[in-house]
Amino acid sequence: MPEVSNARMLHAVVAIVQRDKRVLFVQRSSVSRGFAGYWTPVSGRVEAAESERQALRREVREEVALEIEPGEKVATIPTRDGRYLLHFWTCAVVAGEPRVSSEEVADLRWLTLAELARLQPVFEEDVRIVSAVMSDADVADALADDADRGVS
Among 96, 105, 144, 148, which one has the highest count of C-beta atoms within 10 angstroms of its own C-beta? Predict the structure, then answer.
């Protein structure tokens, strides 16, 4: 991947919203310049004077009508064209049920890891990062279950 100056790049956030071992992905509509039809986590540009956490809350509210609480940043990567630096964050649902609430979104789905692996078209980077986060969560859940049962 070519080296890019972070100072000239725009910043965007990517919300990894999980519930019941599923992750929320949206299908981009024809309004989404160049990415129509692609399935992605909810994402969007960080506006001037806005923190990444504020951008996450705003983007998720605007696109799928959910209130979320950002967790931790799990990855930062440049887009393929080098225009944006993408900041991936875990997010917990605080309130609401997801629904399409933006002209940028055509559809939405809660996906298991197996369903995510079969989804097309997607960006391989999204699948790789989200799958790693979900796998880590499954390992953590299994360890917690073992600890609860007194297994070492």
Answer: 105
